[in-house]
Amino acid sequence: MTPTETVYTNAEIFTADGTHGAEAFVVRGDRLAYVGDRGTAQRLASGDATAVDLGGRFVMPGFTDAHSHLVMMGESLRKVDLIDAGDLAEIQRRMRAAAEQAPHAARVLGRSWLPDAVPGGNPTRQMLDEVVADRPVYLDANDLHSVWVNTAALEELGITRDTPDPHGGLIARDESGEPSGMLYETAVTAIVWPKLVELSSDTERDAALAATFEHYLASGVTGAIEMACGEAELATLQRAVADDGSLPIRVTAHWLIHRSDTPEQELRQVQRAAELATSVCTPWLRVAGIKLILDGVIDTCTAAMKEPYANGENADPIWGREALFPVVAAADAADLQIAMHAIGDEASAIALDALEHAFRENGPRVRRHRMEHLETITVESIQRMASLGIVASMQPVHSDPAVQENWRAKLGDHRVDRGFPWPELSAAGAALAFGTDAPTAPYAPLPNMFIAATRRSALNPSLPANLPKYAMPIADALRHATADAAWSAGCERDLGRLSTGMLADFVVLDGNPLTAEADDLLTMGVHLTVVGGQTRYAVEPRD
User: Fold this and answer.
1) SS3 of 542, please?
2) Which of 69, 348, 500, 515 is deepest in the core (most CB within 10 A)?
3) Domain CATH number, residue 109
4) What are the C-alpha distances in Å from 189 to residues 257, 268, 274, 292, 310?
5) Do residues 97 and 168 share a domain?
6) Residue 379 has pLDDT above 60, yes or no
7) Residue range 362-369: average pLDDT?
8) Backbone angles phi, psi at 280, to 5 degrees
9) Does residue 170 lie within any of the structural domains?
10) 452 in any annotated domain
11) Residue 41 is inside which H or E element, if any?
12) Is 543 a residue whose pLDDT tops 50?
C-alpha cells in the first residue's frame, strides 16, 4: 500500500536541529520525507499529494514532556483545584461546595493546595472535618509529596495512632499521638496511592488517561515520559495501545522503585523493570528504566539538604547511600535508564555517588542516566553531572513566583539565590531536558516556556521575576523541551527535530514564540498537532 503524502508550505519552521530558513516540508506516511524550501518540497511531492498551506504559521517539533505522570494528570483534572485558594476559609468553601454538588460521591478529592494558605502551614483533619465529615476527603499538596486528609479518610486508610511510619515517610501526629491528618512522602506513595488505586476502577483510569491525551494534544505535546509507572498505570497504558496498536502520543515509562523492608524486595522490583524493558518496547509505549525518589520537597522540609532549613530542621534522604548503591548498581548492570528525584543538594550528591559506584562496579559503556528536579544543587555537583554525562531533567513551572513564597522561606538564606539554576547546568555541559511534572504543575508547554524565558509567573504575571539572571533565550527553552527532551529518553534518532527521515510529530502554532512578546506565550494557541503523520488535534475542522 502506497503511504499517504502531504506537502505543507508557507510556514516558519523551527527545526530544533540548528538549521534555519526552512519554509516547507513533505510528510510521507509517518515520516518527514523532506524539510527545506518550498520549490523542492513541491517537486519531491507526488502528483496526488495533499497540499496544505499553513498561512505563515510557526511549525516546530511536538513537545515532549520530559517528566510527567499521565494517569494521575487525568485524575487531577477531576479534582477540586486549590492552587489559587488563598486561605483556609477558601479551601473549606470549595470543599464544602464540591461535597454538596456531588452528594453521592464516595469521597471528595482536591489538589494543588499551597502551605501558605493554611494557618502556620499546619493543616489538620479537624479543619476538613468542619466542612466534610460524612465521607473521606483527600487533598493532594501542590507537589504531590504530601496529602491532607480528614478523619474519615484516615479510617478508610486504616491509619491509627499505632500505625508505624513507613520507610522514608511520616504520619504526622498531634500532641496526644493521634494522626493529625497530614501524610508525607512514602506515607503517600506506600499507603494513599495503593488504596486509591484499589478503590478506583479500570474504567476510571482509562478515562483519566484519555483526558490526559486530549489535553496534551490540544497544547502541542506529542510525547511524554511517565515518571512513576506501576502495575496499574502500565495496565492502563497497555489497554489504550490494544485498541489499534498505537497511542495518541508516544510514551516512555520509568518503573517506580519503592523503599521496602529488605534489599531483596527492592532488587526484585529492579528485576521486574528489566523484564518489562524487554517485553514492553514499541514505537508508542516502552519501559526504559527505573525511577527512585531520593528525597522529598523543600516546601515541607523533606528534601535532603547539606545545611539545615531556616527553622534548624533537616531531613534524612528516603534512599541513603547504603540502600541506594545496590539498587542503582543492579539497574545499571541491567542497562536500565536510572532517573532519580533529587531536589535537595545533599540528595543530588548522594545520587552522583551512587552512579559513580555503579560505573566502577559495571565498567565503561555508553549510558544516559537522569536526575529529576534539582531545585538546589551545588556548583561541585553540577560539574560532576556534566563530567558523568547525567541528564538534568528540570521543570520551569516549579519556579513560578506564585508558588515560591513558602519555598524561599523554608531555605531563608544564600541557597534561595541559586534556586532552579538551569543555565548553570547547560553552561557546564550537562544535557538539559524540560518538562512539567504534571499534575504537580500546569501541563501546558507554552506557559512553561514563558517561565523559562522570563522567570516570571504564568499564574500571576504581575509578580516580579524569580531570579531573572537564570532566564534563557526562548529558542534554547524550545530546544530543551523538544530535541533535548527526546534525547533524554533515547529517542533522538526519530523524535525532537524536524529534519528529513524523522518521525512526523509536529505542532503548528498561531504565533511565533521566537518573535512574539514574551507575554504572548500565555495566550498563544495551537492550530494543529500531528503525530506520526496523522492529525490528532486541529482547531479547524478537517476536510
Assistant:
1) coil
2) 348
3) 3.10.310.70
4) 11, 18, 22, 12, 27
5) yes
6) yes
7) 96
8) -115, 90
9) yes
10) no
11) helix 38-44
12) no
Range with the lowest mean pLDDT among 211-220, 240-249, 429-438?
A: 240-249
Supply φ then ψ for residue 420, to 5 degrees: 55, 60
Q: What are the distances in angstroms from CA 363 to CA 13, 274, 288?
A: 42, 19, 20
Determine contact, residues 487/223, Cβ cutoff 8 Å. Answer: no
Identify the domain boundary among 180, 199, 218.
Answer: 199
Domain count within the chain = 2
Pairwise CA distance, residues 269 & 384, whole Å: 28
Burial call 179-203: b when 16+ CB within 10 Å, e when fewer: bbbbbbbbbbbbbbbebbeeeeeee
Residues 82 and 113: beta-carbon distance below 8 Å: yes
Compute CA 156 distance to the chain's CA centroid, rounded to the nearest angstrom.
29
Q: Residue 439 has which C-alpha cell? A: 499534575
Report d(CA 141, CA 121) in Å as an integer. Answer: 12
Contacts for 436 with CB less than 8 Å, ≥ 6 apart: 65, 67, 68, 395, 397, 442, 443, 444, 445, 448
Q: Is the pLDDT of residue 243 over 80?
A: no
Can you give the length of the chain in residues? Answer: 543
- Tens of pLDDT, residue by residue over 28-63, are 999 999 999 999 999 999 889 999 999 999 999 999
Q: What is the pLDDT of residue 541?
A: 58
Instruction: Write out the three cell numbers for 150.
Output: 480528614
pTM over 0.85: yes
Q: Are 510 and 526 in contact (CB under 8 A)?
A: yes
DSSP state of 520: G
**Which residues have C-beta within 8 Å of that of residue 334, sequence separation ≥ 6?**
270, 271, 273, 274, 277
Q: Is residue 438 part of a domain?
A: no
pLDDT tens digits for range 385-433: 999 999 999 999 999 999 999 999 999 999 999 999 999 999 999 999 9
The span from the CA of 472 to the CA of 394, in Å, is 14
Which grid cell sits at 424? 548553570
Distance CA 470, CA 510 (A): 27
Would you place residue 102 in the very low, low, confident or very high pLDDT band (cuts 50, 70, 90)?
very high
Note whether 162 and 168 are within 8 A (CB).
Answer: no
| Domain hosting residue 97, numbered range | 78-199
- 205 Cβ contact partners less than 8 Å away, ≥ 6 residues apart: 71, 75, 232, 233, 236
Q: What are phi and psi of 343, to 5 degrees?
A: -90, -45
The residue among 435, 479, 476 whose CA lies nearest residue 16 is 479
Mean pLDDT of 178-203: 97
Residues of 8-34 as b/e, b for ≥16 C-beta within 10 angstroms?
bbebbbbbbbeeeebbbbbbbebbbbb
Among the candidates 199, 230, 258, a domain finishes at: 199
Determine the Cα angle at 409 with ends 405 and 410, to 5°.
120
